[in-house]
Amino acid sequence: MKVSKNELKASLHKAFEGLGFHSGDYHNAADMVIWLETHGFYGFDRLLAALTYLNTTAPVHADLSQDDGYNFVLDGKGTSILLCGSEAVDLLRAASKADSGAGLELINCYNRTFIIQRMVKAAESNVACVAYWRQLDYCVKVSVEAGDFLPEYKTFSLIEEFDTQSLRIFSGPSLGIIENQFKQYLKFGSLIDTYESVKMEDCYRNSLEHGVEIDEALWKTLDDLVARVLVESTELSRAGAGD
Amino acid sequence: MHSSIQNTGIQSEVNTLSMRPASQVMQLDRLGSFHQTRLSFMRTLVRRMVTENWQISTPVFDLDDQGYGTVVYQVEAKYGTFSYVLFSHYLDPECRNDRVIADQWDLTMALCEGTVDVEQLEFLRNNVPKQEAGRVDSRVMVLSRANRSARTFEYVVNELTNGRQPNIDVIAEVGYLYRTTAAYGSGKLGMADWEKVWSKHRDFARPFAAEMFTCYILRHFSMEQAEYLASKRAPKTAVKLDESIKRYIGIGNSTGLGMAPFLINHPLLINQWVEMRETALARVVAASESGVQKETLVRLDMGAKRVIQHLSEIVTGDERQHKSNLTVQKELHLMRLWLEEAGPELASNHFVWGTLIEYAEKHWHVETQEVINTLLIELYPELVDELEERMWVDECHDVTPEMSVSDMISVIEDKYDWALAIDFSKQESSGAFWYRSEEKMEPRLGQTDIDLGMEKEMPLGIGRRVRDCYDQMCSYNLAQPNQNVAHFIIKNPTRSGIVARMQTMAKSRYGDIRENLLHTDVLPIHLLRCKLSFFGVSKFDPRSRLWVRNTMFQGAPLIDDFGKPLCDDWQFPIKPIFTAD
Predict the structure, then answer these.
(1) Does residue B394 sit at the A interface (CB-CB below 8 Å)?
(2) Is residue B566 part of a domain?
(3) Cβ neighbours of B194 in A, within 8 Å
(4) Whole-complex ipTM
(5) Sequence spans of domains, chain A
(6) Is A217 an 8 Å CB contact of chain B?
(7) Model confidence, pTM
(8) What is the CATH number of domain A2-226?
(9) In this complex, do A91 and B187 lie within 8 Å of one another by their Cβ atoms?
(10) What is the side-by-side order of every strand in the sheet holding B538-542?
(11) CA–CA distance, B74 with B55 (Å, rounded to integer)
């Protein structure tokens, strides 16, 4: 079935609220899901994967375990990027200066692809970002130039062993400064694939024109989560609506 | 993005104009006293339709002798073609209910892009009558429904059938033949997203333009159906409605709590609407720097006279509104006297409108003040009308993570002093809570510790959320001075939403509505009236503190007036003088 972006957003807000997310968190999480889905990054599949965890525990946020003002380590404690991605990128945005950047390692976290939307959001406020993480046996690298609306998404072969559930992000005033300042960290193997920004744009335009395709089972799952924030209707409660 | 480009041009002007402060304008009782202005969405839509001479044809008019069936209006607007598809159904009078929870209506409608083929019409026929229980697709821009007025519809049809015009007093008491109970847009139920509407369809690229258009065409249909039924019942003797009566027939509207959360959840948009209205008023005041022309004074006097008549013709059972209407009439009489006595002098009076506004603020009821402001704005279309293009803003609440916590505390103390002034230790300050009912997710207002559902409260108590965040931030700043907002949120992640809101709204001129919506005695009706005034409705008739009846497009030009010189003087509609043959 097809749904609109606005409809999806309203449903996701309430569904995440039903999972115990607070305002702010549920806005950010909904934005991440919608952005990924409408730009061809399979946001719904990733949401389904996230729900298996989110549905079993109260919301968990990351802890800041190292902080020297420019380099941070956040411990995700097994949580989803839907709950800790905004905080991670906001720390970096705050630490980025006019002529230098900052770096962050987010350990023990899941659903890392969702971080792309937060990076795009940072780019809107003129902060460039680069992130990479290990996915199965390859490495995903995402970069967004300050001021750009779409990221560059590439996959590379692995040349270093790093934790399967961690994520490294760097921020700065421009990609050039980031690449220069953090070159010792930004080393990748051979290029495997590129997801072109023109395809992201096409996907977005198509979803705007025709709606977003969503599996009815997932829509039903969201409805069930939404039901958690609804209150039983009684004769007394009808009086609270004007009767 | 679109709006930020538009708005940069006006920012320097706004900074130099003498604008009313947020502490005055954003009080809920003042917002709840607003009336329609030239910038209201119905007014701007009508101006556009008439001046651009939109063409409305009727490729399908398939009604039976009872007036049930299908009608399709095809709309040729300036930039595009649209179809307005309407289904008229039999409705058991026992089932006629204006509430959101209703599931049957006399009429259901959809506004679609382009033309509608047989296949799409069938799809719409299977879904539009179901409203929330159906699904439509992104070719649909608005979904709506309406119920007949039990008092006027059959009466008007009977009169026309018998070759007579309806008594204008009967029309005046109600104001319409049909009431709309909802007009959904912005992507609900699978419809086109607002982003698609504004980026693809310039004719409706203003807030609620498509929704207002849906109600306007409903008005047209309501009269066409009445005339059609009369002609079916008495083909030889039936008459058509007199044009002056037609113009005086509007569309009824019932608005309840469902609209209230919108104002809290879209603070940037409300700020934008208010800022444009206030910009218009400030421009008008600035224009009177060297006095005003005599004919402008005469037009103000005529406007006041019209409002007095308009208010005197409103029938409302709400005592508070009735008293307010009487007070406004009395005070407008005083204003007219002042205009009469001081007229010659006023023509050369320095900032005469500023003097009038100041006098009204000191001596008259808040609703009189806002009626006067509306009348003043009406006098200067050349200064005001271009603001109609600036009524939209891209809404996004962003955290500014680099801001220091101490600076953030100062921002809260400066911009949210109204919230910090609320004493939440008093029971009545948290005596109400908002929740969504499982019945169509209808927003409802509950009494704390009495009604069920407090644990599922909607986060509409901005004042209390500000207070809680402020207290936590002050404690955090004492324990860990010199930290920034990003660090505060890491430690207090549940505050990210209210922090983003406060930081975003602090950059706006008017900011949040200054009211504790959790107070035992909160009057949500002010929220409804505020939004309805920007829609452009008139004749407010509160039915309780939770819902209000009103009239849309009463007095507005008819489709036959499109392309003719525009008489843009239909606000505060008054009974036409009509003498039956």
Answers:
(1) no
(2) no
(3) 6
(4) 0.97
(5) 2-226
(6) no
(7) 0.95
(8) 3.30.1370
(9) no
(10) B55-63, B69-76, B81-88, B107-113, B140-148, B176-184, B250-255, B548-552, B538-542
(11) 8
